[in-house]
C-alpha cells in the first residue's frame, strides 16, 4: 500500500511541473512554428576582381525564431561564380560590374547586392612571347622580332626588355624596346633571347642560303599597231591586248648573270614587276629564243619560246611571278645549257586589257629577278 502511494505522488509531481512550464508561457513549442522567410548576410558587399566573399542564409519562422539553412546559391550579372561550402555560399569575383547573389530555400528567396571592382594587385610578368618564334631565312635578308609580356591570366604586361643573340654569328641585332631587327649576314643557327627580370622569351633562327636581287640590264616593249616605233627608252612597259583595235603589246626583259657567285645552286627564281596600271586578266611569261636590242620594234621583235607561267597583276605594287619552269630556265642560263636572251610578257588568249609595268629607266621600281641560292 505504501509503495502504491509513492507512485501516485511521483506522477502528481510530474503533472505539476508540466503545468508550470506550459501554463505560465515561459517556453514555446517551436515544432508548431511555420517557415515565413529567408534572410542573407551580408546584404550588400563590394569586392575586387580575384577575391572571394562568404554569404550565409538564415530561415525565419512564425514564432520569431531563426535557424541556419543550406540553400541553393546562384549569382547573376556574369561577374563571378558561387559554390556551396558547408552552410555558406562562397562567391569568387572574376569580372568588374554589378550583380546579385541569391539564396533559395523552401518557399523563400533572399538576395544580396554585389559590386565587383578592379583588382588593386599589381600585374606580375609570367611569360614573354616572341613573334615569330621560329625563323627560316636567307643571308642578306632582315627579320623583325616583337616581344609581348603576359601575366598568369594572359593579360598583357608592359615590359622594357633586353635582347641577346647567341649561337652562330648570323648577323647584327638592333633593338628598340619590345622590337628587335636582325640584319642577316651569314648562314648558321642562333637563338634570339628577350629578358625582363627573371622571365625570358626565345626565338630560334636558321639561316640557309642567300638572296640576290638583280635589276634588269635591258627592257622594252613593242606595239603591233606601230610596228616600226621603238620604245626602248620609255619609262613604262606595256603588255596585253586591246580588242577595240585588235592590238597586241609585248614586253621583254633581260637580266645579267655575272652577279651570281661561282658555285651557286639556284633554289628559286622570282620575277618582280612593278605595275603602275592594270587592265587585264592573266598574262603569260615565256622564254625568249633570240635577242632584243635598243632598236627592237614589232617588225624586228625576237622569237618567243616555251611557256613558263601565267600571272595576274595588282596596280601600284610589285607583282611576283614565280614557278618551277622559271627556276629551271635560270639554272640553264647559269650553266650555259640555254642562252640568256631574256623573258617575254604577253597575252596570247585574246583577253582584253593591258598591264603597264615600270621599266628599268624608272630607277624607283625597276624590274627585278630575285634568286634564292646556296653555295656548293
Which tags fit this structure?
five-stranded antiparallel beta sheet; 3 domains; 376 residues; Immunoglobulin-like; disordered N terminus; mainly beta; Jelly Rolls; 53% strand
Describe this structure in words.
The chain has helices at 2-24, 324-335; strands spanning 35-41, 44-48, 52-61, 66-68, 72-75, 80-85, 88-93, 97-105, 108-117, 127-131, 134-139, 142-150, 156-157, 162-167, 171-176, 179-184, 188-196, 199-215, 218-223, 236-242, 247-254, 264-278, 283-288, 304-311, 317-322, 343-346, 353-358, 368-375. The termini are far apart. The model is unreliable at 1-30 (pLDDT under 50). The chain folds into three domains: 35-117, Immunoglobulin-like (Sandwich); 127-209, Immunoglobulins (Immunoglobulin-like, Sandwich), CATH 2.60.40; 216-375, Jelly Rolls. It is built from two helices and 28 strands. With 376 residues, the chain is mainly beta. It is elongated. A hairpin with a 2-residue loop joins β15 (171-176) and β16 (179-184). The strands form four sheets. Strands 11, 14, 17, 18, 19, 20, 21, 22, 23, 24, 25, 26, 27 and 28 form a 14-stranded mixed beta sheet that branches. Strands 1, 3, 4, 6 and 7 form a five-stranded antiparallel beta sheet that branches.
Amino acid at each position: 500500500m505504501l509503495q502504491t502511494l509513492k507512485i501516485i505522488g511521483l506522477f502528481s509531481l510530474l503533472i505539476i511541473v508540466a503545468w508550470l512550464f506550459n501554463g505560465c508561457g515561459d517556453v514555446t513549442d517551436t515544432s508548431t512554428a511555420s517557415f515565413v522567410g529567408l534572410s542573407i548576410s551580408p546584404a550588400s558587399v563590394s569586392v575586387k576582381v580575384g577575391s572571394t566573399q562568404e554569404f550565409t542564409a538564415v530561415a525565419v519562422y512564425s514564432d520569431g525564431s531563426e535557424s541556419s539553412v543550406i540553400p541553393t546559391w546562384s549569382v547573376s550579372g556574369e561577374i563571378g561564380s558561387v559554390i556551396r561550402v558547408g552552410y555558406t555560399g562562397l562567391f569568387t569575383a572574376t569580372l568588374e560590374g554589378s550583380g546579385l547573389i541569391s539564396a533559395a530555400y523552401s518557399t523563400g528567396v533572399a538576395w544580396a547586392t554585389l559590386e565587383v571592382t578592379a583588382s588593386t594587385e599589381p600585374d606580375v610578368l609570367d611569360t614573354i612571347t616572341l613573334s615569330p618564334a621560329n625563323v627560316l631565312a636567307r643571308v642578306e635578308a632582315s627579320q623583325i622580332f616583337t616581344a609581348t609580356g603576359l601575366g598568369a591570366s594572359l593579360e598583357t604586361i608592359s615590359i622594357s626588355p633586353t635582347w641577346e643573340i647567341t649561337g652562330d654569328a648570323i648577323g647584327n641585332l638592333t633593338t628598340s624596346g619590345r622590337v628587335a631587327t636582325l640584319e642577316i649576314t651569314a648562314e648558321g643557327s642562333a637563338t634570339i633571347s628577350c629578358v625582363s627580370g627573371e622571365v625570358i622569351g626565345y626565338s630560334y633562327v636558321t639561316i640557309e642560303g642567300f638572296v640576290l636581287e638583280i635589276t634588269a640590264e635591258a627592257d622594252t616593249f613593242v606595239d603591233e599597231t606601230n610596228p616600226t616605233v621603238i620604245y626602248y627608252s620609255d619609262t613604262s612597259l606595256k603588255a596585253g591586248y586591246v580588242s577595240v583595235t585588235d592590238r597586241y603589246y609585248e614586253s621583254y626583259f633581260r637580266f645579267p648573270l655575272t652577279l651570281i657567285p661561282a658555285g651557286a645552286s639556284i633554289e628559286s627564281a622570282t620575277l618582280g614587276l612593278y605595275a603602275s596600271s592594270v587592265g587585264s586578266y592573266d598574262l603569260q611569261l615565256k622564254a625568249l629564243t633570240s635577242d632584243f636590242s635598243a632598236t627592237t620594234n614589232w617588225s624586228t621583235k625576237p622569237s618567243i619560246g616555251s611557256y613558263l607561267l601565267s600571272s595576274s597583276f595588282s596596280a601600284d605594287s610589285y607583282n611576283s611571278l614565280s614557278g618551277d619552269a622559271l627556276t629551271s630556265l635560270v639554272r640553264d642560263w647559269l650553266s650555259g645549257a640555254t642562252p640568256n636572251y631574256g623573258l617575254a610578257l604577253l597575252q596570247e588568249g585574246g583577253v582584253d586589257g593591258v598591264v603597264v609595268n615600270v621599266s628599268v629607266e624608272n630607277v624607283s621600281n625597276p624590274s627585278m629577278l630575285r634568286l634564292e641560292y646556296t653555295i656548293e
